[in-house]
Amino acid sequence: MSITANLTELKNEADRLNVKLIAVSKTKPEEEIMEAYNAGQRVFGENQVQELVEKHDHLPKDIEWHLIGHLQTNKVKYIAPFVSLIHSADSLKLLAEIDKQAAKNNRVIECLLQIYIADEETKFGLGFDEAIELLRSPEFSELKHIKIKGVMGIATNTQNEKQIRDEFYELKIFFDGLKQSFFKKDDGFKEISMGMSSDYKLAIEQGSTMIRVGSTIFGKRIIPHWKKGIADKKPGADA
Ligand SMILES: *Cc1c(COP(=O)(O)O)cnc(C)c1O
To answer: Among residues 228, 233, 112, which one has the least CA distance to residue 178?
Structure first.
């Protein structure tokens, strides 16, 4: 099927279920992003800073760009002027840098706390206890140019649906706990970014509000040989 057909079908499903669709365009050329754009998609996710910056420069300015991959502190400055949502905030140090760069750009940058839910060693994210410790810290309360909108998680890459469902369920329960403890009066704290091509249906069933879907829209990613081993090893791979 074409990008337009894939996107339209998925977008209808997401709209019907009241879930926001992030079209993950990493490694995909600008023509293909424009095909999705022309089919009505305005929200795109990338996992590498350089690629995100280049695509932002070249493509229409009403696109909302999300960073979904691991972000290194020294690269925050490149995306701070325009990024709409950072899904992968996973340390106080990173949030402090996002805050600093946001202030320089006279912005408040929206972020999700990436929470570690998978049974795999390679995935980034905060443990449950670490996330709570971060939210309680006095340093965190000083940050005025970031806004925490919710949480993000990546489930284990497995065929075991029960395991995936349990991981998403845990993230949803954790989100509810954070909401109660830290964000009770904050209507903006409402997002749970979970679900990708292979598991978005399970994620929605467990309460996802944002799905990050790439290959179901754009087809399989072919990894350029010069990026092999860096770009696309794992979801959430290093920016
Ligand atoms: C690549 C990626 C996705 C999308 O993966 P697909 O399987 O192509 O849908 C979602 N989230 C993150 C963090 C990713 O890196």
So the answer is: 112
pTM over 0.90: yes
Question: Please, how many CA atoms are within 13 Å of residue 121, restricted to the half-sphere of its CB?
Answer: 0
CB-side exposure of 185: number of CA atoms within 13 Å?
0
- Model confidence at 197, pLDDT cuts 50, 70, 90, reads very high
Take atom 6 of ligand 1 and give the residue whose Cα is closest: 214
Q: Ligand 1: which residue has its CA nearest to atom 1?
A: 235
Conformational region of residue 44, where left means phi above 0, alpha means psi within -120 to 50, and beta covers everything else = beta
Q: Which residues of 51-86 are buried (b: 16+ CB within 10 A; e: fewer)?
A: bbbebbeebeeebebbbbbbbeeebbebbbebbbbb
pLDDT digits (tens, 9 = 90+) for 9-44: 999 999 999 999 999 999 999 999 999 999 999 999
Measured from CB, residues less than 6 Å from any atom of ligand 1 are 24, 26, 47, 68-69, 154, 196-198, 212-216, 235-236
Whole-number Å distance, alpha carbon 68 to ligand 1 midpoint, is 8
What is the per-residue pLDDT for 122?
Answer: 67
Angstrom CA distances, 184 to 109, 192, 229, stand at 20, 16, 42
Whether residue 186 has pLDDT greater than 50 = yes
Q: Where are the domains of the chain?
A: 3-233
Two tokens at 13? 């499903």
| pLDDT, mean of residues 186-191 | 98
CATH homologous superfamily for the domain 3-233: Alanine racemase (3.20.20.10)
